[in-house]
Amino acid sequence: MKKIETIFKEKKNLLSIYFTCGYPKLEDTTKVISELEKSGVDFIEVGLPYSDPLADGPTIQDSSQKALENGINLDIIFDQLMTIKETNKTPLVLMGYLNQMLKYGEEKFCQKVVDCGIDTVILPDLPMVEFENYYKPLFEKYGITNVFLITPHTSDERIRKIDSYSKAFIYVVASASITGAKGDISNQQIAYFERIKGMNLKSNLIVGFGISDKETFDTACNYANGAIIGSAFIKNLGENGVDKINDFIKPILS
Amino acid sequence: MKSKFHPDKNGYYGQFGGAFIPELLYPNVKELEDNYIQIIESNEFQEEYKSLLKDYVGRPSPLYLAKRLSEKYGAFIYLKREDLNHTGAHKVNNTIGQILVAKKLGKTKIIAETGAGQHGVATATVCALMGLDCTVFMGEKDIERQAPNVARMKMLGAKVVPATSGSKTLKDATNEAIRYWIQHPETFYLIGSVVGPHPYPDMVARLQAVISEEIKWQLKEKTGKENPDTIIACVGGGSNAAGAFYHYMDDEEVELIAVEASGLGVNSGESAATSQLGEVGIIHGSKTILMQDEYGQIVEPYSISAGLDYPGVGPLHAYLYESKRAVFMDATDKEALTAAYELTKIEGIIPALESAHALAVLPKITFKKDQVVVVNLSGRGDKDLETYIKHLED
Lengths: 254, 394
Known about the structure:
Radius of gyration of chain A: 17 Å
CATH class of chain A: Alpha Beta
Helix content of chain A: 40-55%
CATH architecture of chain A: Alpha-Beta Barrel
Number of strands of chain A: 9
CATH topology of chain A: TIM Barrel
Oligomer: heterodimer
Distance between the termini of chain A: 25 Å
Structural class of chain B: alpha/beta
Strand order of the largest sheet of chain B: 3-4-14-9-10-13
Order of helices and strands of chain A: HEHEHHEHHEHEEHEHEHEHH
Largest sheet of chain A: 9 strands, parallel
CATH superfamily of chain A: Aldolase class I
Distance between the termini of chain B: 51 Å
Strand content of chain A: 5-15%
Largest sheet of chain B: 6 strands, mixed
Number of domains of chain A: 1
Mean pLDDT of chain B: 96
Low-confidence stretches of chain B: none
Number of helices of chain B: 16
Order of helices and strands of chain B: EEHHEHEHEHEHHEHEHHEHEHEEHEHHEH
Shape of chain A: globular
Mean pLDDT of chain A: 95
Largest interface: A-B, 41 and 33 residues
């Protein structure tokens, strides 16, 4: 697997796709990753299904619930990821909620992540103060990088601090929203993207929440190193299945 | 007064508490954190809060020596009559306080979560009183089960939004309220219990503390002593217990008993006895004890009482449990029903099903001679009549 830092050096306009492990079927985790890789996606967010995903909208909630009903759990997910460790070259980022790591055992979780060849995690409910007080040294011990989110309401001072803690990229949340927001990108959002761009941060920027198609992807790429599509992909996956993944990705990359 | 049972600057009670919120909520929570103590301690707030509690809610709520109950159990049993408050429970102490905080912060739109509908009604009530916009999130299943409270909220002018995710009950209503809050950062989230991210558990505990503040002087008037030997309160999220315990937490001589709902039995798989079944975890922005599976997926609790079937417990209570400052007991559905029928028959008071759980531990305790016990009667049973009638026929 390539390092995520490497792809930021190699390319602009990176397309990342979020998907939910164990969805639509329990064994689809690795199939989805391999289809996404074939279709030219630059890096993949591997979603760990959670019973109470506070930052997620209905589409990802539904897929998570379905995946849990399919019997998915962290042990199965780590086993699935181990099977493609050698063959998959596309960088993977794990996205889940803090309680999953806490209950699994923080050290054990980190070790498993590293064993799977992954070094980047996104935990949307891990606040900065907890990171500073506790998780920073833990992640450093395992060589894991945490991705922070910033929003239209995050102060410049806080963004600077987040920039100093970020290694892989900063997740620029496109609007005050949960995942699955729809519609065009507004002038207000453009002003926010420009504000962030104008801060000349050292970190790479990836826009997410509300990116759903080629148009919104291209717009986001004007202000960042790339963008993440989640809910729109999950919706397509639910409707059309794993075999049609390329049909969804192709127009976005065209 | 600084107590070891007050949270530290990061909102921790020992290892419990904190504010595990997505970055999207940081400005909202920070605004509240920076201002709540100053607002609550201001003379302006205190005057208005106290005046509304007196003239609108009907406080102080009586402390009643239940003579026949006392005779039966061989102790002096006092009932703190939160059931006599306007809207029928202790919930309104908190909503009156928080609505004044919201106003002070210039907020005009209020959101809340509700399980049985008691907090929803108490929130809709204060919003009507203050002329503020009110949206209440309620699990789709609870909407079906609690039709009268849904009607009350609507009559009070609130919009009731069904939570259709997950198990469609209180935990999901709370998730939906938080998601709405993320998308509408201009709103004020009026949480109904001592749960959620810091500073909510502390703010709600301070607003419910009026319960134990009154118990102190009322008991002194009646017995010459401020301190009872024992205080008993039921715990779901734990706001009525937090209020009843608050001014006694540092007085180690006062025994604090928290009663959880064990549903069909602690180990039946249908229970809400969080302290016995739960482990450390994060729910609704707070690190606490919660019911979860081995992978941290939150487990849906069960109790006959919709106000006690919460999979977590407030972080203060997790700390009272861990530090052994409070004794945690439990009562099953059946024990609670029996206690409710008993209080109704021998004292003429129909308690809420939640409060009946607190009463249900009386037969399990061996009282010493002249032991003074206060049971916090957190709410009245009007809302539970259907359940009571159904089980009378059983």
